[in-house]
Design brief:
By secondary structure, this protein is of the alpha/beta class. It has two domains: 178 residues, Phosphoglycerate kinase, N-terminal domain (Rossmann fold), CATH 3.40.50; 151 residues, Phosphoglycerate kinase, N-terminal domain (Rossmann fold). The chain is built from 14 helices and 16 strands. It has a six-stranded parallel sheet with strand order 5-6-4-1-7-8, with helices on both faces. A five-stranded parallel sheet has the order 10-9-14-15-16. A three-stranded antiparallel sheet has the order 12-11-13. α4 packs across α5 and α8 crosses α9. The two termini are 13 Å apart.
């Protein structure tokens, strides 16, 4: 169903409320990584061309609802407001106590404003209808642009869409959904998914869903250990979920899953551990598998180069430690250098892409973590579903 988009609306002279995802790392009172902020800038600039008043809202971390921001200052959006002001070269005024005292926001007839952390508001997470209506009363047009929170039915993502005079999808949300549709609904084939991470259980539904859709599935990290275990390989003391061995066997019967032929091991798990490359048949009982080996990296890279669409979520090794980062680096480089359409998502994946300096070489990097995974496993995103309903109404 086609969503009503912000670009299709005349925002002239209107109050526009935009839900963004500014849940960024803060260090020493400053934004440490502004990727999510930069992703939202085009939406803000587009709205600012004609809208009279732009009100931005976001969460940051997990504050305690009902507790004032002065009691949990480390979760204030003040550093984001300062950073946004610098990026936009235009003052972004932070507004606190806007629920208790609406006049603080209403006394400004124009400009760009950022509401203090919306998750301190009672009823935000439970999608309290009165809070949703309060948000809706702030604007003439509500724009949902925070894909990373689209899987949450909360007052700032769902309730406000129900009650706002007009509700639409922002450019960033639209881009995210288009990239996901291109990768999953109408992919150019062959289609490959790379799924890494520590446990099969945390990505079980994703793996099951992808096994029905992809032509090839690469598993890495602790997930791969469970698949090796299911194949009868001694994995030593490596992270594994033996209870899911039968699930791993089922998935291997469902689609093509090439397993590592060599790995990088260590006798301990820490940043100073000595790395040793071994064939999977040589793994000792006291070994930890912490990365794929060079032969496996070459095998995966060749496979990646033959694909037309690639979905990537999760590293294939402990890339945070230099001696165990080569595998993830090789996979990332192969994806970046290929001619395929590549879609990457998830916090660790984005961190790896950033570490290896490949941000501009991935076709699309999703700003969402949980929403990205839920979409992949076929779940409906509540914030998108309500926008669909409003699109019909409009």
């Amino acid at each position: 169903m086609k969503l009503l988009k912000m670009e299709d609306l005349d925002l002239s002279g209107k109050r526009v409320l935009i839900r963004e995802d500014f849940n960024v790392p803060i260090s020493n009172g400053e934004v440490a990584n502004d990727a999510r902020i930069q992703a939202a800038v085009p939406t803000i600039k587009l709205a600012n061309r004609s809208a009279k008043k732009i009100i931005l809202m976001s969460h940051l971390g997990r504050p305690i609802e009902g507790k004032s921001i002065s009691e949990q200052l480390e979760l204030s959006l003040a550093p984001v407001a300062t950073h946004l002001s610098n990026v936009l070269d235009k003052e972004v005024l932070l507004i606190d106590s806007y629920i208790e005292n609406p006049k603080l926001l209403n006394r400004h007839s124009e400009g760009i404003f950022l509401l203090e952390n919306i998750r301190i508001n009672l009823g935000e997470k439970s999608n309290d209808y009165l809070l949703g209506k309060t948000y809706a009363d702030m604007c003439d047009v509500f724009v949902m642009d925070a894909f990373g929170t689209a899987h949450r039915a909360q007052a700032s993502t769902y309730g406000v869409s129900e009650y706002a005079a007009s509700a639409c999808a922002g450019p960033l949300l639209s881009k995210e959904l288009d990239a996901l549709e291109r990768s999953l609904t109408k992919p150019s084939r062959p289609l490959l998914a790379v799924v890494g991470g520590s446990k099969v259980s945390t990505k079980l539904e994703v793996l099951k869903e992808l096994s029905k859709k992809v032509d090839q599935l690469i598993v890495g990290g602790g997930i791969a250990n469970t698949f090796l275990f299911a194949s009868g390989i001694n994995i030593g003391k490596s992270l594994c979920e033996p209870a899911l061995a039968e699930t791993a066997k089922y998935l291997m019967r469902s689609t093509n899953i090439p397993l590592p032929i060599d790995v990088v091991t260590a006798k301990e798990f820490n940043s100073n551990a000595k790395a040793q490359v071994k064939m999977v048949s040589q793994i000792d009982s006291d070994d930890y598998i912490l990365d794929i080996g060079p032969q496996t990296a070459d095998m995966f890279s060749q496979l990646i180069s033959s694909m037309k669409t690639i979905i990537w979520n999760g590293p294939v090794g402990v890339f945070e430690f230099p001696q165990f980062s080569d595998g993830t680096c090789s996979v990332a480089l192969a994806i970046a250098k290929g001619k395929s359409f590549s879609l990457a998502g998830g916090g660790e994946t984005i961190a790896a892409i950033d570490k290896f300096g490949l941000t501009n070489q991935i076709s699309y990097i999703s700003t969402g973590g949980g929403a990205f995974l839920e979409y992949i496993q076929g779940a409906e995103l509540p914030a998108v579903e309500i926008l669909k309903k409003r699109s019909i109404a409009n």
